[in-house]
């Protein structure tokens, strides 16, 4: 990868504790400023101003360790400053061409115990990041036990926030819209609107450290809480260590948060020499039927992962410009689900001829995906994964979905230091065997995809399966995800259900009532919105999740045939958190636009100035039918039939505008293909 950069480092300023020079750094555009202070007790603090507002008031900084004082009696020894203007490329992503432009201030401190702390702060036009770089070796220590995090977030005023509650073993919780002052705790990204400023608290480059949640201390002051180890401590680290970045994305409009590149820019460059095998793709598979109860994971009459079904899916993919197929329930061990959680990652069930299927996929030019469910048994998986990866590589398999639906052993939390270590072990070992990862029940995304681009996508929020066996995901949930979970990185939401009311599933003899009575469940959006989700919910590995028979002969499936998951450019055009969202992406010479609204009908005027000048495009519009009849839905409610849609074609240029009209719970998807 080629890139250019400019780096200017200024000489340090000695003895700053006795100087009047301000310890502050501003973004290149001057709109965001971070100030560092030292209290009388020698505790570091910070504050953030943006767009003329106090976003974060004076807030304490530092960690606590059992063996050494890491947070008090510090004096400033030196300050180093740098300016970076750096263009870089990534092999895949929302945008392949990236700009890292920031100002940095490194405040070097030492305390009475001889502990050295470098507080490194970077200010970008789209937010700030800071991290702790500790060195306690002068005290004769070789390791430390972290027992507390004193990082605080003291909000400058009350506002509205969108978040999920704190939970150290999962993220599949409904999003809450409430006052900052009414929020007791939250996982990150923690998105908020305060006056005219939008912001989101998260972290970047999470390695070998527990994840951060935030807990309210008083009305507007929150404190970092780290996922604990089984013994109640937080982390074991060397006496010289660096933490993840604490991040605050900032914008003066809602979509500015989505267009931020801060999280990626705070990660290190790619660690892999050969990335030619890492390619975005579309995929289908036997997954949705299991959640609907029409198929099962284990051998038997309704087994989904059979040789016959596999060959059928490979043929469908080859015929519909789809690059991959995923099979869950192919391997022995699913009979232990909910019990011993023991799986064999190499041996298929007798009705799944792995070698034959792999050879057929190769013949058809289709990527075969494997699935490794662990049930949380991380020690067993770590012992088995290298043999499994070697086998997959020998069969030409380069894509793997992992799962951790279950408790980890010995009281280990998914998001603890040991959990984070495990997820990274899998990524690095997979890279050795040229395998890309789609992680479910994952540790949250913190931008490591820049460094490890084989970590392509992950779950980490309420996805499509919740629509099969619960109250489901609302259109408001889908209008919240881009401003919250997706700020951290790609999500394998598994979009694209066309059988909105599950008519085909309900007509299937012997359908299982998986997770209880599912007779009143259905998709809570229109079909047009399901299509738009392929654009709105970014993933370089994008699934059409419905049963393939529901796509066969369906005119609206043409959008997915035309859609390209390997996008080059993206921009969120318009939206408000929880209300609506409009995003455009370019892949090659074609553009794709997705729009979605909450439970309110909405019309949005969109300028097509993102299209290339001088080129005419055929726009194929997949829209809600606003005249759809009112029906009684499976839950007894009255609403317009969500399966009704319309397709329209027109020729447009970058000088045109479009009126995007959406029904309640609806959306719109548009493909723009250059006219030859």
What does this protein look like?
The protein is an alpha+beta fold and 676 residues long. The chain folds into three domains: 4-265, Beta-galactosidase, Chain A, domain 5 (Distorted Sandwich); 275-459, Aldolase class I (TIM Barrel); 461-488 and 522-539 and 555-676, Aldolase class I (TIM Barrel, Alpha-Beta Barrel). Helix content is 15%, strand content 36%. The protein has twelve helices and 39 strands. Strands 1, 7, 8, 9, 10, 13, 14, 16, 17, 21 and 22 form an eleven-stranded antiparallel sheet that branches. Helix 6 (378-394) links the parallel strand 25 (367-373) and strand 26. The protein is globular, with a radius of gyration of 25 Å. Residues 1-20 have low confidence and may be disordered.
Architecture blueprint of SSEs:
Elements: E1 4-10, E2 24-26, E3 32-38, E4 44-50, E5 53-60, E6 63-65, E7 75-89, E8 97-110, E9 116-124, E10 127-135, E11 143-149, E12 152-155, E13 160-163, E14 176-179, E15 185-186, E16 190-194, E17 197-204, E18 212-216, E19 221-226, E20 235-238, E21 240-242, E22 245-251, H1 254-258, H2 262-265, E23 281-286, H3 288-292, H4 307-319, E24 324-327, H5 354-364, E25 367-373, H6 378-394, E26 399-403, H7 417-432, E27 436-439, E28 455-458, H8 466-469, H9 475-480, H10 503-506, H11 527-536, E29 541-543, H12 558-562, E30 569-576, E31 580-587, E32 590-597, E33 602-607, E34 617-624, E35 630-632, E36 638-640, E37 645-652, E38 657-662, E39 667-674
Parallel strand pairs: 23-24, 23-29, 24-25, 25-26, 26-27, 27-28
Antiparallel strand pairs: 1-7, 2-3, 3-4, 4-5, 5-12, 6-11, 7-8, 8-9, 9-10, 10-21, 10-22, 11-20, 12-19, 13-14, 13-16, 15-18, 16-17, 17-22, 18-19, 30-31, 31-32, 32-39, 33-38, 34-37, 34-39, 35-36
Helix pairs in contact: 4-5, 6-7
């Amino acid at each position: 990868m080629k890139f250019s950069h400019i780096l200017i480092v200024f000489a340090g300023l000695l003895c700053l504790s006795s100087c009047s020079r301000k310890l502050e750094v501003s973004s290149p555009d001057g709109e965001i400023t971070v100030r560092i202070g030292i209290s009388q007790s020698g505790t570091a603090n910070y504050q953030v101003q943006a767009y003329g507002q106090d976003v974060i008031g004076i807030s304490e900084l530092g960690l606590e360790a059992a063996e050494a004082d890491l947070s008090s009696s510090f004096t400033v020894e030196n300050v180093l400053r740098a300016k970076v203007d750096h263009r870089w490329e990534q092999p895949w992503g929302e945008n392949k061409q990236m700009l890292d432009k920031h100002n940095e201030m490194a405040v070097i401190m030492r305390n009475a115990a001889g502990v050295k702390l470098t507080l490194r702060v970077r200010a970008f036009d789209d937010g700030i990041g800071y991290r702790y770089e500790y060195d306690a070796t002068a005290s004769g220590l070789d390791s430390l036990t972290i027992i507390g995090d004193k990082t605080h977030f003291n909000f400058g005023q009350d506002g509205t926030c969108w978040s999920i509650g704190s939970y150290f073993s999962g993220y599949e919780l409904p999003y809450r819209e409430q006052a900052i002052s009414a929020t007791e705790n939250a996982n990150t990204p923690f998105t908020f609107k305060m006056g005219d400023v939008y912001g989101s608290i998260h972290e970047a480059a999470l390695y070998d450290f527990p994840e951060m949640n935030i807990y309210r201390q008083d009305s507007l002051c929150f404190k970092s809480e780290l996922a604990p180890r089984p013994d109640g401590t937080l982390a074991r680290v060397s006496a010289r260590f660096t933490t993840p970045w604490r991040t605050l994305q900032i914008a003066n409009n809602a979509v500015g948060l989505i267009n931020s590149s801060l999280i990626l820019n705070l990660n290190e460059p790619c660690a892999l020499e050969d990335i030619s095998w890492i390619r975005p793709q579309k995929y289908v598979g036997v997954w949705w039927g299991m959640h609907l109860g029409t198929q099962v994971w284990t051998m038997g009459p309704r087994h989904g992962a059979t040789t016959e079904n596999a060959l059928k899916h490979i043929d469908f993919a080859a015929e519909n410009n789809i690059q991959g197929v995923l099979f869950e329930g192919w391997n022995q061990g699913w009979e232990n689900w909910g019990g011993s959680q023991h799986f064999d990652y190499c041996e298929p069930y007798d009705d799944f001829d792995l070698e034959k299927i792999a050879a057929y996929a190769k013949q058809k030019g289709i990527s075969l995906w494997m699935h490794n469910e662990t049930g949380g048994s991380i020690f067993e998986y770590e012992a088995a994964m290298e043999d499994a990866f070697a086998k997959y590589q020998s069969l030409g398999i380069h894509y793997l979905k992992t799962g951790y639906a279950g408790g980890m052993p010995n009281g280990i939390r998914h998001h603890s230091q040991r959990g984070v270590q495990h997820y990274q072990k899998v990524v690095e070992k997979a890279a050795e065997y040229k395998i890309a990862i789609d992680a479910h029940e994952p540790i949250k995304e913190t931008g490591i995809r820049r460094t490890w681009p084989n970590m392509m996508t992950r779950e980490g929020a309420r996805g499509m399966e919740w629509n099969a066996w619960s109250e489901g995901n609302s259109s408001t949930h889908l209008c919240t995800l881009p401003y919250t979970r997706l700020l951290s990185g790609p999500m394998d939401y598994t979009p694209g259900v066309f059988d909105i009311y599950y008519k085909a599933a309900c007509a299937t003899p012997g359908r299982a009532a998986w997770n209880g009575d599912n007779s009143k469940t259905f998709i809570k959006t229109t079909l047009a919105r399901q299509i738009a989700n392929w654009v709105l919910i970014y993933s370089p590995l994008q699934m059409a999740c419905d049963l393939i028979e529901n796509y066969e002969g369906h005119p609206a499936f043409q959008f997915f045939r035309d859609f390209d998951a390997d996008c080059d450019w993206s921009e969120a055009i318009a939206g408000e958190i929880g209300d609506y969202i409009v995003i455009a992406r370019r892949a090659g010479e074609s553009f794709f636009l997705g729009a979605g609204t909450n439970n309110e009908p909405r019309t949005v005027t969109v300028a097509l100035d993102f299209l290339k000048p001088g080129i005419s495009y055929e726009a194929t519009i997949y829209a809600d039918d606003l005249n759809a009849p009112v029906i009684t839905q499976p839950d007894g409610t009255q609403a317009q039939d969500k399966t009704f849609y319309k397709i329209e074609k027109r020729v447009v240029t970058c000088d045109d505008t479009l009126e995007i009209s959406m029904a309640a719970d609806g959306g719109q998807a548009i493909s723009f293909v250059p006219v030859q």
